[in-house]
User: Which sequence fits this backbone?
């Protein structure tokens, strides 16, 4: 795995963590109306320290799956571009073939008329 791939995985892992932390905070806020408890925001680094190793592994797996999905999307887009190019080449080849056939037919008719 290259440094670029590792940094992109870290980026997506951080985004997933931020989203999970945001959901936890939203749940905290929703519960405030039910419980007369004062809520204190917990810094991300504290939440990171309290996460279980399984959560960290799952988060890395999510980030890796998302990275692989993006690679797959890129490969599919490249394949589609290649197919478009191949189709254009095939159409041009067919047009050239048809023009040559028309030219041959024209010369044969011209020769037969003489």
Assistant:
């Amino acid at each position: 795995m290259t440094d670029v791939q590792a940094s992109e995985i870290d980026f997506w892992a951080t985004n997933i963590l931020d989203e999970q932390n945001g959901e936890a905070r939203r749940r905290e806020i929703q519960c405030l109306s039910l419980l007369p408890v004062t809520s204190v925001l917990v810094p991300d680094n504290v939440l990171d320290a309290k996460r279980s190793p399984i959560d960290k592994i799952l988060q890395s797996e999510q980030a890796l799956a998302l990275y692989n999905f993006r690679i797959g999307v890129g490969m599919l887009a490249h394949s589609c571009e290649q197919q478009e190019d191949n189709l254009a080449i095939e159409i041009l080849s067919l047009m050239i073939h048809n023009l040559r056939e028309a030219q041959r037919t024209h010369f044969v008719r011209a020769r037969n008329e003489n």
User: Anything to note?
Assistant: Residues 3-113 form one domain.
